[in-house]
Amino acid sequence: MKGSKIAVITFAMMLMPALQSHGQFSNPAPLSATTISQENLIQPAELARMLRPGAAGRPVVFQVGSFVMFQQAHIPDSGFAGPGSQANGMILLKKFSAPLSKKQLIVIYCGCCPWNHCPNLGPAYKELHDLGFTNVKVLYLANNFGDDWVAKGYPVEKGQ
Known about the structure:
By secondary structure, the chain is α/β, with parallel strands linked by helices. It contains six helices and five strands.
């Protein structure tokens, strides 16, 4: 019995390079922010209007970037849902979105880096859709949160 397990493991190890070259066990291509269609984006000015006191249709907002960035500055009343590119971020996003209606307007944002390099938005957006949410928007921050939100004078909170 022991020898047969070793033979199976050895055989699998010999096959691994061939399987990897055909994509069988390779990591999936990361989902970048650029995979999100234009109709699912929201501009900073529009979100800022929606967040004014007394505004109708206030969305639930999640930051899906780093916790350090969230502590430095974040959109008021937004929740930290963890980095969308990491498994622990997906766990937090599932947990915090679970009690919400599937039709609830949810806006996610990151702003860690330029839009076309963000590793967090694509996976978080896909996860929310996979969970059945039908009204998800992504805050379009072309450069980063500092340039496209903070420097433009939109409201921020600091700390947790």
